[in-house]
Amino acid sequence: MKEQSPLGKFHGAFEEASPNSQGMRTTSNFGNIASLKTKLTGLEDEIAQLQQTLDFYKKEFSLVRSDKGTLNDMLDLKKKEVVLDLNGKLFRVDDELKKHSAHQKAENSRLQQQITQLKGDKTTINEQLLKLEAELNDLQGHVGHDNDEPR
Q1: Which of 32, 57, 89, 149 could covalently link to 17 via disulfide, CB atoms 3.0 to 4.6 Å apart?
Q2: Cα distances (Å, whole numbers) of residue 59 to 52, 88, 100
Q3: Tens-of-pLDDT digits for all 151 residues of the chain?
Q4: How many CA atoms lie within 13 A of 66 on its CB side?
Q5: Running DSSP on this structure, what letter comes out for residue 5?
Q6: CA 88 to CA 84: how far, in whole Å?
């Protein structure tokens, strides 16, 4: 199998125009020139097609790059919107948390004062109960005794 040179078809055109291994020409000079022109025209057509394909892909690449830039801009804008929205929500939640915390502290303080007041009332009632029990015991000790008798 014959190895293809980097020059491809162009190199093949020169091989046909060059003398063969025995030193003889394979075709006439006119045939060689026509064959070279045909191959050259074929190469030019192929180059033109490749250039069109290259131009097409360059445009496609440019469009993709433009789309990428547009999408990046849109993502950046959306990111800024989301950050602003979340910061606003965070501020509102933080503010609401502070209000609820202050309200809870006030409620706790009020309940603590009520507990202290109730403990004081309990102590007072216990003291009064002890006095009343002492009076009751004293009165029970006097029941059935004459009022004339000294104690």
Answers
A1: 32
A2: 11, 43, 60
A3: 444 444 444 444 444 444 444 444 544 566 788 888 899 999 999 999 999 999 999 999 999 999 999 999 999 999 999 999 999 999 999 999 999 999 999 999 999 999 999 999 999 999 999 999 999 998 888 886 655 555 5
A4: 6
A5: P
A6: 6
